[in-house]
Amino acid sequence: MSLPHGSADDLVQLALRHGVAVASGTSAAPDDRFSGHLRLCAGPRPELIRRGVALLAQAWRELSARPLSAPPQAALPV
User: Fold this and answer.
1) How far apart are the C-alpha atoms of 60 and 3, rounded to whole Å?
2) Which of 6, 41, 45, 46 is deepest in the core (most CB within 10 A)?
3) Read out DSSP for the chain?
4) Burial degree of 37 (CB within 10 A; 0-12, 13-18, 19+)
5) In angstroms, rounded to a whole number, what is the distance separating the alpha carbons of residues 12 and 61?
């Protein structure tokens, strides 16, 4: 999934705080060419996918509302 702007790494950390785990596109390449992409799992039951998408949307809205100059918060250990 391609993000319209921003870093997928930042969204991954925030999404985890919202209760949904996704992977940054950087985990699928030896360089940062996919830094604006997410990797999504589509294996769970449809209702779990819908809930995960809703949680991811909340995280995206929160991330998008931040000023561009806001320093990133410390990453959570995974």
Assistant:
1) 9
2) 6
3) -B-SSS-HHHHHHHHHHTT---EEGGGGSSSSTTTTBEE----S-HHHHHHHHHHHHHHHHHHHHS-TTPPPPPPPP-
4) middle
5) 13
Determine if residue 58 is left, alpha or beta; phi over 0 gives left, psi from -120 to 50 gives alpha, anything else beta: alpha
Phi, psi of 66 (to 5 degrees): -70, 145
Does residue 25 surpass a pLDDT of 80?
A: yes
Average pLDDT over residues 27-54: 88
What whole-number distance in Å separates Cα of residue 68 and Cα of residue 47? 34
Which residue do the tokens 């999504």 mark? 40
pLDDT for the residue numbered 76: 58
